[in-house]
Each structure stands twice: as structure tokens, then as C-alpha cells.
Design goal:
By secondary structure, the chain is mostly beta strands. The chain has a single domain (2-462), classed as Methylamine Dehydrogenase, Chain H (7 Propeller), CATH 2.130.10.10. Helices cover 8% and strands 35% of the residues. It is built from four helices and 30 strands. The chain has helices at 2-18, 103-106, 196-209, 229-232; strands spanning 33-37, 46-50, 56-59, 65-69, 72-78, 91-96, 110-114, 120-124, 135-141, 147-157, 161-173, 179-184, 219-224, 243-247, 252-256, 263-267, 276-279, 282-285, 299-300, 308-312, 323-327, 346-351, 356-361, 380-383, 389-393, 398-402, 408-413, 418-421, 427-430, 437-439. The strands form eight sheets. The chain has a five-stranded antiparallel β-sheet with strand order 1-27-26-25-24, with no helix packed on it. The chain is globular, with a radius of gyration of 21 Å. The termini are far apart.
């Protein structure tokens, strides 16, 4: 029951947004596949994602499916061949789902590694204390060959609920299937910066919900920081094996010290007003909880809401060491964040030491209204080697690349939709994509097809069906 109710809660948030003035409307007829592609300006690669059809898809730039695995990942993760002794095309996914209709996300029995041909080369789940993996929201292969998983457990959380509730636990699992390290969100409730008012509202929310959320803070991201310039300069908070997480429900981003388990860095959940701080050679000012669509950078981070995919940009990529995050502006927070009328999401690149925004993307940067780019839940953003950013506007299944100036140079709409029963017990057609991963050409077998033909979009005002 926990698995189903958790996903129902996740998807009902989206339904609430759709039924209020906080959301854009999606047309009933729209093109799918690649709709924009400029090979000269785009970073050319494959893209990996799982879709509501239950499969994991690998596409080329022209939107052709070049490979498929008949397993779902939340998210799927393709491994660098350096992590697989040179074998190409291995992915981490959920192998066996739970019995409930939505069990594949919160109640899965096993996760594992598949090779290019779909053969299982590593699996884990039956060895877990509950006999099930229950992995959700993130999975990562570590440099030592172990695997880091974000899972769901039930237990009372001090100061939140005396009854057992669904909490989230990070586990590190060895190649042999042994748990060698754990960290549980509920054990650190006093370190997340939740105000007394927020703590009271959090307790009331769990009393009203009968403790059936799928993870009471909805930690949706869990990534090792990796090598970075801050640690190299002596800042131990950014040790490479420390872990960055973010909470969708409480709107904070934090770093876990791997050695002590303590939170050693945090952004949010509540943002001060009128602060000034020096970022580099410029003075950055946070003038209010939002101006939501201020284009001035650098400036201090203003209020985020329901963000996803917070991570440190890896070494070797442009702006390495900065934090990149998809700020959804979805309903979130204890107390709830006051959202803007002109709903729109943002991609924020943040200097984690000064907490200043040094680059951002909104729909406005693509000469669209703010609401032209919006996903109230799920979604991701990844920096590419040429400086572009790959964005997953998850709610609408739209994947696209933008340049630093905001020009859209590649766009793809997920065609792999399915009818699903949501909170109202009615079937709806959904094509959402939780996360998208750019895949270098040399990560897959050499004979994998690849097409790079330019696609010029039509003039929308003259594009009609007959």
C-alpha cells in the first residue's frame, strides 16, 4: 500500500497543478520525436531515458530509437565503460517490480545491472533487510565498484510521527550484495533547517495523511560530489565521496559528510530577505523571496520550490564544481512556498561557496513566456561538454538542449506514452520522463546506428493539419 499511495501522492501533486492557475496546458495534439535539431550548435550524443511504457530507451539526435531494454529505471543510469572493465552499454535499472500497479517506483523487489543484450550481470534486493530493494529516485555506481541506492524504509521519525512512516535511506552495497554504509533521512531531521512552524506543519501533514507518503521529505537526488576545485583548495565540505541530496517536499539541497553522516552544507529551505554577499568581483543581492524571473547574475539564490537533480558539475565539463539544479517551482515547502502567478521553472547554476546564481535558464531566455518552460515535478538538467545544457521538462516528456544564451538547438518529445490510472481513478495518457542522461557515442557498441540530419521546425503560425 505504501508503494501505490506514494506514487499517487507524487502524481496527484501534478494533477493539482494542472487543475489550478499554477500550470500550463498541454495541447491534445502535438508532434513527438525530434522537433528541432541544429547539428552545428548541439552537443551530439545519444540520450537515455525510461518512459511510462515500462521500457528504457536509447535515442539518437534525430529521435530514432537505437536500443531498448524491457526494464524501467527510476532513473536508469548508463555506466561509463571505465566502470565495467571496458564493456559498453551497461545500465542500472529496476529488475523486478512489486505487486501493486505503481510498485515499480517505491516497492520494487530487485535492482540490477544489465548488459547491452539485456543480460543481468549484477542484482540486489532479496539481500535487503526487508527482502526487497525498494529503490527509488536515484542510483549511482561508485568508483570502488559499490553501488549507492536511495531506498524506502518504514520507522517512526522523532518529532514527526510516533507511528512508523515511509522514510528514505541511502545504502551503499558491495559487489557481493553486502550493505556497507547507510544514512537515514529521518535521523537528521534537526539538521535540515526546518523552522518551528514548518515542523508543526510537517507533523500535521503526516497525521492527516495517515503516514502513507513514499518518503517523508521526498529526497529525489543522491549523487557523490566527485573531484572538485573547492576540495582541492582545502574546503573539506566538498570531499569527493560526500553526497549531495535534495528534498522535493521541503525545498532544501544539502551535502552529507560520508564519514560522519552529518549535514555539512545546506541551501534552503527558507531564504533570507535583503541579504548582501560578495560573489567573485561582483556584489550579489537577494532583494526578496522572489523576483522569480530576474535575469541579473550574479545574485544570491532566491527561493527554490520542489527542485530536482541537484548535483555538482563533474570535472572536465564547463563550469565544473558549480551546482546545477532544476528548480521546478512546484508546490512545496513547510510552510508552503508562495508561487508566482506566471508559473515557470528554472535551471540554476550556483557557486556553492558564495551561494550566488552565476547562470540560469528560464523560458524567457528562449524568447518564450515564463510559462513556456514548466514542470511542477520530476525533471533534470545536465551540463554537456560544449557548454550546452540538456534539460528534461519531465511533466510533459520534453527533452531539449539550450546554449548558454538560451537558444534551443535540439528538442525531442517522448512518444512512448501509456494510459495510467491516477488519483481520480481515471485513465489518462501520460508521457512523463523522470530524468534524461546524455550518453557519449563511445559508451555503446561501435555498430550502434546514429543519425545526425538537421531538423528545422516549421513556422507554428502556418503549421496546420489538413
Amino acid at each position: 500500500m505504501i508503494g501505490r499511495s506514494a506514487l499517487v501522492f507524487l502524481l496527484s501533486v501534478a494533477l493539482v497543478c494542472i487543475m489550478t492557475d499554477q500550470a500550463i496546458a498541454q495541447p491534445s495534439v502535438f508532434p513527438t520525436g525530434t522537433t528541432i535539431y541544429d547539428p552545428a550548435k548541439a552537443y551530439n550524443s545519444y540520450v537515455l531515458f525510461s518512459a511510462p511504457d515500462g521500457n528504457t530507451h536509447l535515442i539518437d539526435m534525430d529521435g530514432n530509437e537505437v536500443h531498448r531494454w524491457n526494464k524501467f529505471g527510476f532513473p536508469p543510469e548508463m555506466l561509463d565503460p571505465e566502470q565495467t572493465v571496458g564493456d559498453k552499454g551497461h545500465i542500472l535499472v529496476q529488475l523486478e517490480n512489486g505487486s501493486s500497479p505503481f510498485g515499480n517506483i517505491f516497492d520494487n523487489r530487485e535492482v540490477g545491472e544489465l548488459d547491452w543484450n539485456g543480460n543481468t550481470v549484477w542484482r540486489w534486493g532479496t539481500q535487503a533487510p526487508s527482502g526487497k530493494a525498494r529503490q527509488n529516485h536515484d542510483i549511482s555506481r561508485l568508483p570502488n565498484g559499490n553501488t549507492l541506492l536511495l531506498t524506502t524504509i518504514e520507522h517512526p521519525v522523532a518529532g514527526v510521527s510516533e507511528q512508523a512512516i515511509a522514510d528514505q535511506q541511502i545504502v551503499e552495497v558491495s559487489k557481493e550484495g553486502q550493505i556497507v554504509w547507510t544514512w537515514t533521512a529521518g535521523d537528521h531531521i534537526n539538521e535540515f533547517g526546518i523552522s518551528p512552524e514548518g515542523r508543526s506543519l510537517l507533523r500535521e501533514a503526516y497525521r492527516a495523511s495517515k503516514q502513507e507518503f513514499g518518503g517523508f521529505l521526498t529526497i529525489n537526488n543522491m549523487q557523490p560530489i566527485g573531484s572538485n576545485r573547492f576540495f582541492d583548495a582545502g574546503d573539506k565540505r566538498f570531499a569527493p565521496d560526500n553526497i549531495m541530496i535534495d528534498s522535493r517536499e521541503v525545498s532544501f539541497i544539502a551535502i552529507i559528510d560520508k564519514q560522519t553522516g552529518k549535514i555539512v552544507w545546506r541551501l534552503g529551505p527558507d531564504y533570507a530577505v535583503g541579504n548582501q554577499q560578495t560573489g567573485g568581483s561582483a556584489t550579489v543581492t537577494n532583494t526578496s523571496l522572489r523576483p522569480r524571473f530576474s535575469l541579473a547574475v550574479p545574485r544570491l539564490v532566491d527561493q527554490t520550490s520542489g527542485q530536482h537533480d541537484a548535483h555538482i558539475i563533474p570535472q572536465g565539463l564547463p563550469s565544473a564544481g558549480n551546482l546545477l539544479v532544476f528548480d521546478n517551482e512546484g508546490p512545496s515547502g513547510f510552510p508552503p512556498t508562495r508561487l508566482s502567478v506566471e508559473s515557470g521553472s528554472r535551471i540554476l547554476e550556483i557557486d556553492p561557496q558564495t551561494k550566488a546564481i552565476v547562470w540560469q535558464y528560464t523560458g524567457i531566455d528562449s524568447k518564450q513566456p515564463a510559462w513556456g518552460f514548466y514542470s511542477s515535478f520530476i525533471s533534470s538538467a545536465r551540463r554537456l561538454p560544449n557548454g550546452n545544457t540538456l534539460i528534461d521538462e519531465g511533466m510533459t516528456g520534453r527533452l531539449f538542449q539550450v546554449t548558454r544564451s538560451g537558444e534551443i538547438v535540439w528538442e525531442y518529445v517522448n512518444p512512448y506514452s501509456i494510459r495510467q490510472k491516477l488519483d481520480l481513478d481515471r485513465e489518462v495518457l501520460a508521457n512523463w520522463v523522470y530524468r534524461a542522461q546524455p550518453i557519449p557515442y563511445n559508451w555503446v557498441p561501435d555498430e550502434t546506428p546514429c543519425q545526425e540530419a538537421a531538423i528545422k521546425p516549421p513556422n507554428n503560425s502556418k503549421f496546420h493539419l489538413s
